[in-house]
């Protein structure tokens, strides 16, 4: 396994360096408005628990990216777009109906294009650089934050999109629901993570969950809608100008395949 | 499609402006700051056991990085869209030129 990583790193060195520089430059700079769990705010055992749980997804993700690039070397730039989209959206701190601010995650698009585990890797890199350079999230909470934003979010987005395809809904609706629900569920998971670590003295886990959900999930509802809409905008543009690559990635049904 | 996208973007702007109108006096701080308060409330004895290694030294520097982030990210996406649009058009042109050449030969 290590060998295949090395092979992939060597082969795509330029891509990785570009991505790395890109991430450094783009990392979100407003720690006070960061929506991930803050450095030091999760007890050690929970940090380890979420970290260990996240690792398999990263391994599968590395392999998945490597496979995709081997098959279609042309899609490297599209992979960059998926990462760029996650970065731009996580920089947009948008006011919400609760009177506080939060930001979209932008992982839905990449999950639809490249599959959920590929986005786990990209999301984890995003979170790592933000933790290191911008005091956004944290190194100790990296596992927990990766699990919510880069594992659960993309998985929800991916399966919602696939389900919509099965049900033959219009593509835009599938994209919208995938991105919006992926975003919302990310913060539901964050609420669970905090409630599990900090059960209330009166009422325990459930009472804490309600409290954290009130802070994160409710704030996130309008933002989830915004993320859904913005993802549809970019997806529309990609469909118009680059239909071929989307078909190659089996994101939208290819007419050639149907004929066969 | 252009009209559709403009409507979608307008909706996003509305969603962002609406809270500003209904909560005129609100602080609009970060949701994680509130979570921090909630944790302190639930477990007053809890001490964060690790601090961030580095934080942007001032609000101005934060906003510099913020502007840079938005510019470069949007720039990359814009570059990509321009690239694929140009590629599509040149392929179309090549296709029609090849078609004409084929016609003139016959």
Task: Describe this structure as you would to a colleague.
The complex is a heterodimer of chains A (260) and B (106). Chain A has 260 residues and is mainly α. Chain A has one domain (35-253): Arp2/3 complex 21 kDa subunit ARPC3, CATH 1.10.1760.20. Chain A has helices at residues 2-11, 13-26, 44-71, 76-91, 107-114, 116-134, 142-166, 171-197, 204-241, 243-248, 255-259, and strands at residues 94-95, 101-102. A two-stranded antiparallel ribbon of chain A has the order 1-2. In chain A, helix 2 (13-26) packs parallel to helix 4 (76-91) and helix 4 (76-91) packs across helix 6. In chain A, 57% of the residues are buried. Chain B has 106 residues and is mostly helical. Chain B has one domain. In chain B, 75% of the residues lie in helices and 0% in strands. Chain B has 3 helices and no strands. The longest helix of chain B is centred in the last third of the chain and has 47 residues, at 59-105. Chain B is elongated. At the A-B interface, helix 2, helix 4, strand 1, strand 2 and helix 6 of A face helix 1, helix 2 and helix 3 of B.
Short descriptors:
heterodimer, A: 260 residues, Arp2/3 complex 21 kDa subunit ARPC3, 11 helices, B: 106 residues, 75% helix, elongated
């Amino acid at each position: 396994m290590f060998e295949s990583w090395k092979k992939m790193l060597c082969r795509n060195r330029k891509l990785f360096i570009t991505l790395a520089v890109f991430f450094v430059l783009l990392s979100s700079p407003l720690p006070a408005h960061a929506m991930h769990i803050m450095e030091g705010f999760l007890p050690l055992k929970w940090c380890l628990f979420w970290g260990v749980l996240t690792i398999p997804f990263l391994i599968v993700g590395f392999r998945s990216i490597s496979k995709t690039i081997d098959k279609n070397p042309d899609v490297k730039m599209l992979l960059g777009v998926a990462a760029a989209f996650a970065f731009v959206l996580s920089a947009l701190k948008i006011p919400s109906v609760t009177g506080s601010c939060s930001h979209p995650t932008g992982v839905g698009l990449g999950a639809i294009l490249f599959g959920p585990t590929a986005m786990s890797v990209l999301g984890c890199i995003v979170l790592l650089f933000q933790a290191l350079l911008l005091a956004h999230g944290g190194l100790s909470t990296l596992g927990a934050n990766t699990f919510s934003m880069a594992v659960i979010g993309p998985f929800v987005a991916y399966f919602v999109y696939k389900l919509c395809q099965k049900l033959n809904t219009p593509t835009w609706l599938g994209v919208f629901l995938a991105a919006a629900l992926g975003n919302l569920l990310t913060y539901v998971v964050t609420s669970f993570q905090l409630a599990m670590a900090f059960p209330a003295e009166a009422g325990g886990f459930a009472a804490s969950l309600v409290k954290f959900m009130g802070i994160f999930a409710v704030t996130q509802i309008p933002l989830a809608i915004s993320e859904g809409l913005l993802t549809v905008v970019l997806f529309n543009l990609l469909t118009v100008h680059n239909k071929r690559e989307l078909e190659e990635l089996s994101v939208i049904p290819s007419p050639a395949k149907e004929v066969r | 499609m252009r009209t559709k996208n403009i409507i979608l973007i307008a909706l996003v702007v509305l969603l962002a402006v609406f809270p500003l109108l209904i909560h005129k006096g609100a602080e609009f701080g970060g949701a994680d700051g509130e979570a921090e308060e909630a944790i302190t409330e639930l477990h007053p004895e809890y001490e964060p056991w690790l601090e961030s290694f580095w934080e942007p030294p001032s609000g101005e520097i934060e906003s510099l990085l913020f502007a840079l982030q938005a510019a470069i990210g949007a720039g990359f996406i814009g570059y990509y869209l321009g690239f694929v649009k140009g590629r599509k058009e040149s392929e179309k042109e090549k296709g029609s030129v090849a078609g004409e050449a084929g016609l003139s030969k016959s």
